[in-house]
Amino acid sequence: MPVMPLIGWAMLSAAGYLVTLICRLHLPPIVPHKAELFAAARALHTRVALAWFTCVFKHGKKAGVE
User: Which residues cross the membrane (predicted)?
Assistant: First the structure.
């Protein structure tokens, strides 16, 4: 879970977007602007998100929450 924001930041940096935190606080790009890096980061972001969702879902199901 803690890596999701970093993967998202890398994904947006690779796409060439400026990441803004609070009002005018802009984060510097952490990876170069490249379509290949964007595609890889997006795929990784999706896989980690689905894995996280699966863990939460299975935990809820095992705990009896339906």
Answer: 6-27
